[in-house]
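Lab notes, practical 5.
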Amino acid sequence: MKDIDLDRVQEILVTAATDIGLKILAAIALWVIGRWLIGVSQKLIRVALEKQQFDPTLLRYVHSIVSITLNVLLVIGILGYFGIQTTSFAALLATAGIAIGAAWAGLLSNFAAGVFLIVLRPFKVGDVITASGITGTVKEIGIFSSTINTSDHIVTIIGNNKILSDNIQNFSSSEYRRVDLKYQISSATNPEEAIQLLQVKLSEIPKVLSEPPIEINILEFNLVGPVLAVRPYCNNADYWSVYFEVNRVMAKAFADAGYPTPMASQNMIVKQN
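Output from the prediction step:
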């Protein structure tokens, strides 16, 4: 009798182990096949959106959302195969989502801001902007943060909520940009002659645009003499090269013309009793 019971227990254990093993193998197979199908679906969606010339940033958003949604559905399907009540699991996910949302309010605000950045489109990847006090080229607009590469090649990651809640300057939205410079001249120099000289010399710089015209005027006076406001225009990509070239040309033009070096001077009157 004991031998029969032992055989029965062994039979039950073997049957149960076999059943569990088969389910585990089936779950693994479902996971592998599901992941492969998800990859194929993402590729098809990406190809279709690229044919429609979707923005690369929006394409990454769609890719992320589709990936997360399909993976969650795959996990729920595998759990359902094991007999786990997916309705209870969905309720658990909803409860966990509320708790996580309360704990990660800042992170979710960054996510919401990222969605608005995509919808409102104040800038796109490749634009030169100033956001949250950082100036550089936009390399990526992510789900929670955006990446800006500054002119000195420092990669800066800024939360999307901070970007959207602050002022944004987009230098790439227009075709050209004005270079704002000041140049101090001596009080012994005729400012009108200096302005005419600079107009000629700066117009010879290849990357300086002829339209809009170069603006050169007297900005202010100080103890040294007049201060000129020098404002040429250039294409966005040529801003820094024009900035430095204009400074070089101004210094050389004044030196070649023999203009005196600007120096501060004061007249002292001494009265003797």
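Observations recorded by the TA: The chain has a mean pLDDT of 81. Residues 111 and 143 are 6 Å apart (CA to CA).
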